[in-house]
Amino acid sequence: MIGGGFAGLGVVRGLRHAALDLLLIDRTNHHVFQPLLYQVATAGLAAPSIAAPLRRILRQQANVTVYLGEVSAIDVSARRVHAGERSFEYDYLVVATGTRHAYFGHDEWAQHAPGLKSLEDAFGIRARILDAFEQAEMSDDQAQRAAWLSFVVVGGGPTGVELAGTLAEIAHHTLRQEFRRIDPTRSRVRLVEAGPRVLPAFPASLSAAAQRQLAHLGVEVSIGRAITAVDAHGVRIGDEFMAARTVLWAAGVAASPLGRQLGAELDRAGRVQVATDLSVPAHPEIFVAGDLASVTGAAGAVPGIAPAAKQMGRHVARNLQARLAGRASAAFRYRHYGLLATVGRMAAVVDMGWLRLSGLLAWWFWLLAHIYFLIGFRNRLVVLIDWASAYFTYERGARIIVRSDQSG
Amino acid sequence: MIGGGFAGLGVVRGLRHAALDLLLIDRTNHHVFQPLLYQVATAGLAAPSIAAPLRRILRQQANVTVYLGEVSAIDVSARRVHAGERSFEYDYLVVATGTRHAYFGHDEWAQHAPGLKSLEDAFGIRARILDAFEQAEMSDDQAQRAAWLSFVVVGGGPTGVELAGTLAEIAHHTLRQEFRRIDPTRSRVRLVEAGPRVLPAFPASLSAAAQRQLAHLGVEVSIGRAITAVDAHGVRIGDEFMAARTVLWAAGVAASPLGRQLGAELDRAGRVQVATDLSVPAHPEIFVAGDLASVTGAAGAVPGIAPAAKQMGRHVARNLQARLAGRASAAFRYRHYGLLATVGRMAAVVDMGWLRLSGLLAWWFWLLAHIYFLIGFRNRLVVLIDWASAYFTYERGARIIVRSDQSG
Questions:
Q1: Is A46 near chain B, with CB under 8 Å?
Q2: CA-atom Rg of chain A in angstroms
Q3: Residue ranges of the alpha helices (H) in B15-148?
């Protein structure tokens, strides 16, 4: 098992009663509740509220060993996985290493426009955002100050919308009164989306609602505009240069490079095109689950969201047990329960198919759903307190800038 | 005002009604509740639970400007403070930059035996501790494994006792069942103190009680033994070499180097020997408060603890107001309320002069006192939940290893 995200954990948990010797390899010691990562990046939640040690989650499950390490190579013919100086033989392999952000061939933009996939990313973004206001306060130059108070979020998907909405909330509410030389409420927050609307996975009416809510929060939304350059001073949007010292990237995803080593066809984003049972066509002993898998169901491509990853993980566990029992593995059927996206304070959109909500009601729906799915009772309670406190005070509890090599 | 710790904040808050233009310079954007820093270092609390942004604390106080920067020089004749590329003129200056850990002339030990003064330090130590168990689990070599499971804490003051006691709790309880190849309960935790007893500031009977409690928690206490060498593989204690991959330093303090620039006498630890009113003898316009000040009261030297720093801060504020009103400044009188130190789960010592406690009762006393003094209602509540949950489950909520340049 490579990867301790929703899919990887789904497989491991699904095999908790199996008489198997499971090895879970992950780069980090923790599982992250990805849908709330933007809250850590925007100082709303402390990291431990949305992350839990893998060993802790799996302590009761005696058939699994957790190994902290980065997989460097998969040798499908020798059936070996190499991680650091060690290698492990396998009978069955599940690869669930997800995706990273993609810069469409402009990897040099990464240093100026960080993306958000891991806790490290979230800490980096948090420090950048908070530091921008500090730099603005310290600057004597009017243009420099404006550049420090300008924020650009690239990409109008759920992460981009969440980041832009929350940035506007921080600038317009959280930091009010805290500075003496600048007025944070005069910050510019701009969301740039190359396609025709934000939240393209949602129905057009909800995209429009999200866009209205963003505008209401003070976000400038630029639709149908592509980023053509990013550097330390700002971004070029089409032909227009905008000075902005903080640029966040929420535009593209590229699959984990491990997918290339499985001897399977990849789709354009580098995801592995799996068979209907989620195994790799040429290697039935290898399964791919989660965002790394490219699966097309009856209703189109399976989206890269947490519920889909969990379902795939559980399905792979069932198929593995079927194989071991000499039965045939079954085709994966994605069950779509709906899509949620939050825009900011009291603003969200919900598309359950039979139910479409936007605004305050959608936000409550989103809130309850996310708290419910957070792993661990303690986390749920702490998150609830942080949010209740943030709701009434606009304060964000994790506004700590730390610079060090080791962190958390 | 340089330094946003207990002393610096005490001065600023004490001057909240004064018609002054205050500038608070700090290296970080946050105030840290130092007495609970060891909880972050041992993964018991998330950083935001014990730290709050200075701007947030002071947002209502319009006469203060917060400046995030590191003071590089103080020019006492020109009355200027230099921080980065900027410099500030002052009429009155308060220096409250505290202390760092000292390695008694062996600065090369610092990389192998980190000390605990800041949140950065705490994150570094947390990652080291958690990583040690991971390395032990991954190691195939018996001796290497034992070295990864050996922990040495140098220094038997309150911080050393807290770290050693909590390390023992983590090894013997928190991580139980989580590893498959090692048994964390077989870890060695050793506390080394060069003096004749632990907690030397306490009465001998309480030192003895603390030592018994440490032994009960599984800590080996080595008294009257000095560290003669530290490297990546272990420590030399007198003539004995002990293999240990994790060594924590809680032995010596050295005053902030800014003290040297004030044209005043320093004591052996580099603290500034101030006049009775806490001003610098040759420069009545400069005050020193907190751990950086060397003050001897009627009952001996004022201890380097949070209540003393707060009292000094408030006293400096009163003296500044007296000076501005043309009155004479008053001598500082330290009011000693008592000393508290925690040893571990349900174990602590309390010396209130009229009341001496050890064990469970002392621990409850310590717990309530610390929660009470934690800044901010939200923090108190979150800390309470974390601790209540830890009390019943032995789990520690912040067990996240993150590696990155920016952090938190």
A1: yes
A2: 22
A3: 37-41, 47-50, 54-57, 119-138, 142-148
Q: What is the pLDDT of residue B84?
A: 84
DSSP A8: H
Q: Where are the beta strands (DSSP E) in B182-314?
A: 188-193, 219-223, 227-231, 234-237, 240-243, 246-249, 252-255, 272-273, 279-280, 283-288, 293-294, 296-297, 300-301
- Residues A251 and A110: their CA atoms lie apart, in Å, by 12
Burial level of A2, CB count in 10 A (0-12/13-18/19+)?
buried
* Nearest Cα residue to A54 out of A66, A36, A42: A66
CA angle B185, B186, B187 (to 5 degrees): 90
What is the spatial distance between Cα B397 and Cα B44, in angstroms, rounded to a whole number? 6
Query: Where in the sequence numbering do the catalytic residues of B fall?
Result: 162
Task: Report CB contact under 8 Å: A395, B56.
Answer: yes
Instruction: Tell me the ipTM for this assembly.
Output: 0.83
Write out the DSSP string of A323-368: HHTTPPPPPP------EEEEEETTEEEEE-SS-EEESHHHHHHHHH
**B57 CB contacts (<8 Å, ≥6 apart)?**
B9, B31, B375
By DSSP bridging, strand B64-68 and strand B22-26 are parallel
CA nearest neighbour of B182 among B138, B147, B142, B137: B137
Q: What whole-number distance in Å separates Cα of residue B27 and Cα of residue B4?
A: 9
Active site residues of A: 162
Tokens at A61, concatenated: 């499950």
Question: Which residues of chain A does B180 touch, with a Cβ-Cβ cutoff of 8 Å?
Answer: 62, 65-66
pTM of the model: 0.88
- Determine contact: A21 vs chain B, CB below 8 A: no
CA gap A272, A294 in Å, rounded: 5
Which residue is closest to A45 within chain B, CA to CA?
B48
Tell me the sheet residues that pair with B407: A402
Which pair of tokens denotes residue A177? 């009164």
User: A77 and chain B: CB distance < 8 Å anywhere?
Assistant: no
Q: Does residue B149 have a pLDDT over 60?
A: yes
Distance (Å) from the alpha carbon of A193 to chain B's nearest alpha carbon: 28
Distance CA B237, CA A41 (A): 44
- What is the arithmetic mean of pLDDT over A340-363? 89
CB contacts, 8 Å: B177 with chain A? 59-60
